[in-house]
Amino acid sequence: MVGESLAGESLAEASRSLYDRLPPINQPRTGDLVFAAMQVQEVWRFKDRSVEIRILEEARYVRRAKSLAIPVLDSKLISELMEASLHVQRPAWARHVRRRIRELLEASRA
């Protein structure tokens, strides 16, 4: 039935439940509230030509230099890769990114 969730909650009940799980409103970005409520553990934000990695800790996002999801990546490298995407065609850029990550993974295993 339209408006019913899989668990049998109405859409209104599910929305209220999500709202109740939102962290305190004193966080700087509204989008963070939604991501935190969905328990998104890591958020990357592209701002001023650089990438910010933010990790969910105690219902708040904290800026970190390294990714938890892909530990070989840090904000500096991600920013460099994003910048490179502005200067080459997408297929070449994707190959470059895969090659760079493969190199980093191999180096981390050594």
Describe the model:
There is one protein chain. The protein has helices spanning 11-20, 30-37, 75-85, 90-109, and strands spanning 42-47, 50-57, 60-64. It is globular. With 110 residues, the chain is α+β, with helices and mostly antiparallel strands. It is 45% helix and 17% strand. The termini are far apart. Residues 1-5 have low confidence and may be disordered.
Fill in the keyword field for this structure:
17% strand, globular, three-stranded antiparallel beta sheet, alpha+beta, 110 residues, 3 strands
Summarize the entry for a quick read.
With 110 residues, this protein is α+β, with helices and mostly antiparallel strands. It is built from four helices and three strands, in the order ααβββαα. Helices cover 45% and strands 17% of the residues.
Which structural class fits the helix and strand makeup? alpha+beta
Q: What is the rounded distance between the termini?
A: 55 Å
Mean pLDDT over the full residue set: 80
Percent range for β-strand residues: 15-25%
Q: What is the total tally of β strands?
A: 3
User: Order of strands side by side in the largest beta sheet?
Assistant: 1-2-3
**CA gyration radius, whole angstroms:** 18 Å
